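Archive maintenance. Older records in this collection stored only the sequence; we are now back-filling the structure field for every entry so that each record is complete. The fields below show one back-filled record exactly as it appears after the update. Entries are processed alphabetically, and D-inositol 3-phosphate glycosyltransferase is next in the queue.

ARCHIVE ENTRY
Title: D-inositol 3-phosphate glycosyltransferase
Organism field: Streptomyces albireticuli
Length field: 697
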Amino acid sequence: MKIEFLLHNAYGIGGTIRSTVNLAAALADRHEVRIVSVNRPVDEPELTLDPRVRLTPLVDLREGAETDEYATPLNQRPSEIFRDERIDNGRMAATALTDERVAAHLAATDADVVIATRPKLIGYLAKYGSERYLRLGQEHLTHEAHVPELHAVMDPAIAALDAFATVSEADAGHYREALPDARARVLAIPNAVPAPAAEPSDGTSNMIVSAGRLVAVKRYDRLIAAFAKIAAERPDWNLRIYGRGPAKAKLRKQIEDLGLYERITLMGARSPIETEWSKGAVAAVASDAESFGMTIVEAMHAGLPVVATDCPYGPREILTDGTDGVLVPLDDTDAVDAYAAALLKITGDPALRERLGKAARETALRYAPARIADRYEELFEELRPGSTAAAPEKKKGLLRGLFGGGRAKAAPAVAAPAPEAVAHPEARCAVAADGTLTVRLRAEQLTAADTHALLRQRGAKGKERASVQAPLTGGREPGAWVEARFGPAPLAEGRWDTYVERPGDKTRRRLTAALVEQKALLNRPLAVTADGVAARVPYTTSDGFLAVRAWLRPEHAEVTEVGVGEDGVTLTLTAHGAAFGEGAEIIARLRGGDGSVGDVRAPLTAGSGRLPYEPMARRVKPEEEQDLWDLWVRPAAGAALVRVGRIAGDFADRKGIDTFPAAERGQVRLRPYFTVTNDLTITVKDVEPKEEAGAAA
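Back-filled structure field:
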């Protein structure tokens, strides 16, 4: 069969996109599959598509590209299809151009099945689709999530389709009640969630992990409030929240107001997310509603026990309370106390976490993409018997009906590109407990001349760069993994890019990052070696390559806690490669100063000290946007200064993620922050822009 999925935007990482990509890959085992993205906002998708799945965009909205169609006259006219508030805004709002492109595609496609994944797309499929192919709709939210005005126009479109699949049985029941006379068959088929390639959690991290879009219905405010109630009793536990969305600023303020900015971190979006689940010991879902719960199953695959609110509809259909997870009833107190009690219990019981996590991995197998693909194939066969059956090869020149006799059972094989044609082989990288980096590559992406992997220090053009080689070992037959191991010996401070190299002509190909597993770094102490204090973190660059951030310093002062108070900043430090002694002090030094401004000093006692805001609060360079005060420690009287930073752990870049609140003193705002080298600095800015202040005067 030829199967097509209609997506509003296939280039993001949302749950609808992930579930579609997962299902498409599973169906590609036996069928020809294409994802049609109505919009193309960027060059490449954030998620990795199975190479057998074709991606076809209809409207090019890449801002700044010569082919950007946003300003075309037809794109300035409104769409004739009903409005869907969740997607009909911004650059990707549907327009007359969208209508034209989707209508033309649905008229020309040779697909046997077209599956629309959003209300707006269901409207398109009902209006412009053809009876020569099966027309299916999917609900990735819930019946209750849509306003009556949308149901008034969406429900007739659903009724006109061949089938409509929700992701929970309860929601399918709501649609059957709302559409008793619908032509469409209404049923529930859950989302496909593959087992992760990353190693599962070992449950030892004392980390609670949550992930999803930062929107009101996800109730991260409830999760944060519940964590605040147990923070004192669980001082060694932390919370990480992954995702992006409009609630980010509000959540950050809540965290700062609670004084938990060193315990709760808004991590931003991560793709793939599976490596982050494996860092956790508990997964948390505190939503008011979950149509399904992709993140629940993803966490279960990683072996995490999930604490979820018993909200409509997904959690209670996925989890069995006390068997493979914990369900927290929603109550009149907003469930904060009940959720906190559940977190307190599970964080204090390692045996319970182990038992629930083990059962969770078994339960998660129900949602394997192959099983979900089977459910869809059964539906196709029921709707149009014979459509999925294998057919004998037909002679050339004879026309095949779109459904008559069915399609060949196996999808056409996709020829692997020649190794030389793979510009950037895909790498999986994992850190071991001793700091060894293992890089794994697919044999079919390598040539016989590729003999070793290479770490090469990034630097200015024309300068000699340091490099480290590791031999490639393992079989070279297609499908085999080839490995390179870089031992724990320190690397010079800086960023190191990764390559495979051919020694004969020194030809290098840079490696892309398919998977980077960092969980061993969570509890790994800084290495104190003969060369100095060392740390390194493999990571994915902003453009998708595998790199390593390394630190190597003769001495280092690791800041373990930062407290922003009314009168000063309190730092708790540990010394590495040195020892704090008599006369130890913390020093704030103006960056780029001419010596006319003295340092700000505070004594260091038992590894802790408080830097006063004065005189930093008095702007030194008012003509510039900010004053920057770099933080140092003098380990003992007469000793050389040592930079204060945070280089332990799994963060290659802390700036913008590991953040602190600001303190206002008069007309200035002071805020500690981590620099691009993960060192600690205090920025001092005017509260108001200079233009406004001048105008007011």
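Update note: The two ends are 73 Å apart (CA to CA). Residues 391-411, 690-697 have pLDDT under 50 and may be disordered.
Entry marked complete.
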